[in-house]
Amino acid sequence: MTTGSVLALVPARGGSKGIPDKNIRLLAGRTLLEYAARAAVDSGVVDRAILSTDSERVAAEGRRVGLEVPFLRPSELARDDTPMLPVIEHAVAWLEASGWTPEIVLLLQPTSPGRRPDHIRQALTLLRESGADSVVTVVELPRHLSPDYVMRIEDGRLVPFLPEGAHVTRRQDARPAFVRDGTVYAFWRRTLRDCHSIYGKHCRPLPIPARESLTIDTSDDWEEAERRLASSDGRVAR
């Protein structure tokens, strides 16, 4: 059994209510699967790039763009409400049963077509050098969306979302807040095994500029991604 390797896992089920066939639909001339496959291969740090899908159509596109499709995901792991964790665990367990155990797993969701090879390399380097259980790319929220500055409505009254927000009178004084953007999740195989989580107890952030981040959840997201990618020949506009 070989170890010490890096797995890039691309999860892409066949069903999608928000954007039908989104994983195999052309976006600025390429499918979402192709964007993920190119970033993984061009990073130069991935030993195997595996597609996890329940769909023969998605599997065919995955093979076309250079992803391995050694199995089809069981239907019970391809429902609308299926969490990502069991999908990852299924893929890793299948590979281990076939005699290949990755040391590190990179989760590359196809809904982040702005991902670049250097995002992958930076996440992997940070994971190895930091001693963290995992590394996740994040984007800073606009300062007016910081929990220090946002409000909530309580019994018809407008009050600070956090108690300490009462002392923040200027937007620029609010503390920076970040959101996981989905570009790269990097974690050790042992984190998955020991913590039953892709984050573990020590998750390191890898901040990336908002202009380099794309996440497609809705048709509006798709249109924005089309504009940005088309204007930059398949790369996120800077």
Q: What report would you give on this structure?
A:
By secondary structure, the chain is of the alpha/beta class. Helices cover 29% and strands 24% of the residues. The strands form three sheets. A six-stranded mixed β-sheet has the order 4-1-5-9-6-10. Strands 2-3 form a two-stranded antiparallel ribbon. Strand 2 (26-27) and strand 3 form a beta hairpin. The longest helix is centred in the middle third of the chain and has 14 residues, at 84-97. The mean pLDDT is 93.
Question: Can you describe this structure in just a few lines?
Answer:
The protein is α/β, with parallel strands linked by helices. It has helices at 32-43, 56-64, 84-97, 117-130, 189-195, 219-230, and strands spanning 2-11, 26-27, 30-31, 48-52, 100-107, 134-140, 151-154, 157-160, 178-188, 203-207.
Separate helix tally: 6
Tell me which oligomeric state these chains represent: single chain
Uncertain runs are none
Structural class: alpha/beta
- String of helices and strands: EEEHEHHEHEEEEHEH
Helix content: 25-40%
What does the radius of gyration come to? 19 Å
Distance between the termini: 43 Å
By DSSP, the count of extended strands is 10
Rounded average pLDDT:
93
Report strand order across the widest sheet: 4-1-5-9-6-10
**Approximately what portion of the residues adopt beta-strand conformation?**
15-25%
Global geometry: globular
